[in-house]
Design brief:
68 residues; alpha+beta; two-stranded antiparallel sheet; 1 helix; 24% helix; 34% strand; elongated
Length: 68
């Protein structure tokens, strides 16, 4: 087991995401959907692979990870 430190920069882009407006939760819904799509891409996800949406693209922009 090793201790890791670092920073990972992930870009999530999406098209045609239907979100209700005016309830004060628009940002939260967008953040949740983006986070969920990142998690679905993980090999250890506990979510069904059927929740992966084709209108989302996930890119790892920068990876700065070191171990002690």
């Amino acid at each position: 087991m090793a201790n890791f430190n670092g920073k990972l920069t992930i870009e999530v882009s999406f098209e045609n995401l239907n979100v209700p407006v005016g309830f004060g939760m628009t940002d939260a819904i967008i953040y949740h959907n983006c986070s969920e799509q990142i998690y679905v891409k993980s090999p250890w996800t506990k979510l069904s692979r059927s929740t992966k949406r084709n209108n989302f693209k996930i890119n790892i922009l920068k990876k700065e990870v070191n171990w002690d």
